[in-house]
Design a protein that fits this description.
The protein has 464 residues and is α/β, with parallel strands linked by helices. Helix content is 25%, strand content 27%. It folds into 3 domains: 196 residues, FAD/NAD(P)-binding domain; 127 residues, 3-Layer(bba) Sandwich (FAD/NAD(P)-binding domain), CATH 3.50.50.60; 116 residues, FAD/NAD(P)-binding domain (3-Layer(bba) Sandwich), CATH 3.50.50. It has 12 helices and 26 strands. The protein is globular.
Length: 464
């Protein structure tokens, strides 16, 4: 069945994906163009729209009461605003030449073709499932959508024991390990890296390692899971490495995510080295005037290294959606790129980074200096001052700021925003030392820790 236009001459926008990028694009396009000018049809294969996937670990851990608190806008609310949203409907094919998509109703199995004048691809990312025996066994969970979160919570509620293994120690792995500890599970994290949080340099990751062990989490580094072992009932009972087995009643995959671009690849759309769609500054798919893409399925420009990279973050996805919706609606907006800012926590330990790590700088051929300083979150004499470690990278010849990593207690994480702004502005570490930051003893020492690191980096640049 081909749902071509027979009743009117309105343009039709088709959106694939009902979360941050897709629904932000649809909502912005609707604000800019009336329903009598632009019909909007959106497809979502899950049960939820416009939700915070970043909040799933806090739901699992009990800090958030339920999925409703993670939903910014329901399907009904989108429909009330003039968006034709079709839930539990998965797009299975994009026909670029004939400007149409084929979708399957997951409940009835019915398939239909829907034509488009303009198309937005916002298919997100999928958790990486290692290619090994048992990876798809009952009790093994990836966590990317609210449906994934609900499936994990259901497993936890009916698990035979209280042993959990988290495979991987990136943001998802670390946050899920804490969530499982909060639920009373005995948690082992198996990590193939030398330290957790590979988004940090290993010396900073060591601080996270120590904090995780302080929570009672067993860390197994430099080790790769080779198979998931199952019991007679087919459910997971352990994970195996080359040298050991770790009993598990539930396994959570925290290895990371990949762009969900199988549809785009099959349609012949351009993909980058990380598997994400390639777009121009207006988020239009390269070489296709009427197709846009945004969110976790695209690659973005790293403003520090000058290379494309894949970063799955809701902040970027929402911005992409705003840019796309503006373009679809006839306006003008761009997304210039990112500097790679991220923040997380383990219990009361705050972890933040922006810009390049040492290995990133080496990979793109930058010569750099690196400094690490110890400071406090407040004036040392003020009650509640806590230690903070700041690592800073600067280009050897020019002193241009390249990256910052921060690990500490309360007040540490959001300090990375100072560095994010400095990176975006292309500042040198010397110029950073003159920044007029807010000061009072309850908030900072006289010299903020970020500026202390900048001063030390200036001295090292001059010495080099």
């Amino acid at each position: 069945m081909n749902m071509s236009r027979t009743r009117d001459t309105r343009e039709r926008l088709v959106v694939i994906g009902g979360d941050a990028a897709g629904m932000s694009a649809a909502s912005q396009a609707r604000r800019m163009r009336d329903p009598d000018e632009l019909e909007i049809v959106a497809f979502e294969r899950g049960h939820f729209t416009s939700y915070s996937a970043c909040g799933i670990p806090y739901w699992v851990g009990g800090d958030v009461a339920g999925p409703d608190q993670l939903i910014a806008r329901t399907p009904e609310e989108h429909r009330e605003r003039g968006i034709g949203l079709r839930m539990r409907t998965e797009v299975t094919e994009i026909d670029v030449e004939r400007q149409r998509v084929r979708a399957r109703d997951l409940d009835s199995g019915t398939e239909t073709w829907t034509s488009y004048d303009k198309l937005v691809i916002a298919t997100g990312a999928r958790p990486i499932r290692p290619d090994m025996p048992g990876a798809d066994a009952p009790g093994v969970h990836g966590v990317q959508t609210l449906d994934d979160g609900q499936a994990l919570i259901d497993t936890l509620a009916h698990a035979r024991g209280r042993r959990a293994v988290v495979v991987g120690a990136g943001y998802i792995g670390v946050e899920m390990a804490e969530a499982l500890i909060n639920r009373g599970y005995e948690v082992t994290v198996v990590n193939r890296g030398s330290e957790p949080m590979s988004t940090l340099d290993p010396d900073m990751g060591r601080l996270v390692h120590e904090a995780m062990e302080g929570l009672g989490i067993t860390m197994v580094n430099d080790t790769e899971v080779t198979k998931v072992l199952t019991g007679e009932d087919g459910r997971v009972r352990a994970v195996a490495t080359q040298d050991a087995e770790y009993p598990a009643d539930v396994v959570v995959l925290g290895i990371g995510v990949r762009p969900e671009t199988a549809l785009a690849r099959a349609a012949g759309l351009p993909l980058g080295s990380h598997g994400g769609l390639l777009t121009d500054l207006a988020m239009r798919v390269r070489g296709h005037e009427n197709i846009w893409a945004g969110g976790d399925c695209v690659e973005v420009l790293d403003l520090v290294s000058g290379q494309e990279r894949h970063i799955a973050l809701g902040t970027h996805a929402n911005k992409h959606g705003q840019v796309i919706g503006t373009g679809v609606g006839g306006g003008y907006a761009t997304f210039p790129g990112v500097v790679g800012t991220a923040v997380s926590k383990v219990c009361d330990l705050e972890i933040a980074r922006t810009g390049l790590r040492e290995k990133d700088a080496r990979r793109v051929g930058l010569q750099f200096v690196s400094v690490t300083i110890e400071s406090t979150s407040r004036a040392g004499y003020y009650p509640g001052a806590s230690p903070m470690t700041v690592k800073m990278l600067a280009e050897r010849r020019t002193g241009r700021l390249l990256g910052v990593q921060i690990v500490g207690r309360e007040g540490a994480g959001k300090r990375v925003d100072i560095a994010a702004v400095a990176l975006t502005a292309g500042m040198t570490v010397e110029r950073m030392t003159a920044l007029d930051l807010g000061y009072a003893p309850p908030f900072s020492p006289v010299w903020d820790p970020v500026l202390v690191a900048a001063r030390k980096a200036v001295a090292k640049v001059r010495g080099s």
